Amino acid sequence: MIGTVVAGRYRIDAELGRGGMGIVYRAAQLPLERPVAVKVLRKELALDERARMRFEREARVASALAHPAAVTIHDFGEHEGAAFLVMELLEGATLATRIGGAPLPVAEAIELATQLAEVVAAAHAIGLVHRDLKPENVMLVEDRVRVLDFGLAFLRAPGPAGRMTREGVVVGTPEYLSPEQARGS
């Protein structure tokens, strides 16, 4: 996909990472040459309507959270049958990389936990539940946390718009589930 121009305006320059739902690329928004990240739904999921709905929902719910610690979503669309979303390109390391198997200094851990609590509180204030908050989904950019990957998130809304997971089904990374998630609530 390197060198491809997605939707006539995003040139794919390099692969940044792969997840369960998609592949994230470093790209340039044309003609401005503005650096962005483009997440493309995996090819094997392109025909899976539920996966496409989850991917679109990720863009929608992430864009609903206007907070400095949440990644900014710029665009969503389809290119050659594959859904994509465009977000700001974050330069930094994940919290998982920063931890690196060793404990953080107490003052730093408190500061990062405080920043995370602030963005989680802002999300919950609009009814947004991330459901997969873990060190791999937190970037550190100039010592500030930035929350990524809203693929499992949902907006608490009446009816089918907010929730795609059946009641009682557990989603998320087991090591980081809240007690409520583990109970299927």
What does this structure look like?
With 185 residues, this protein is α+β, with helices and mostly antiparallel strands. It has two domains: 5-88, 2-Layer Sandwich (Phosphorylase Kinase, domain 1); 93-182, Transferase(Phosphotransferase) domain 1 (Transferase(Phosphotransferase), domain 1, Orthogonal Bundle). Helix content is 24%, strand content 30%. The chain has helices at residues 49-64, 95-99, 106-125, 179-182; strands at 5-6, 10-18, 22-29, 34-41, 73-79, 82-88, 93-94, 128-129, 138-141, 144-147, 154-155. A six-stranded antiparallel sheet has the order 1-2-3-4-6-5, with helices on one face. A three-stranded antiparallel sheet has the order 7-9-10. A two-stranded antiparallel ribbon has the order 8-11. 27% of the residues are buried.
Note the main attributes of this structure.
185 residues, alpha+beta, Phosphorylase Kinase, domain 1, Transferase(Phosphotransferase), domain 1, six-stranded antiparallel sheet, three-stranded antiparallel sheet, 4 helices, 11 strands, globular
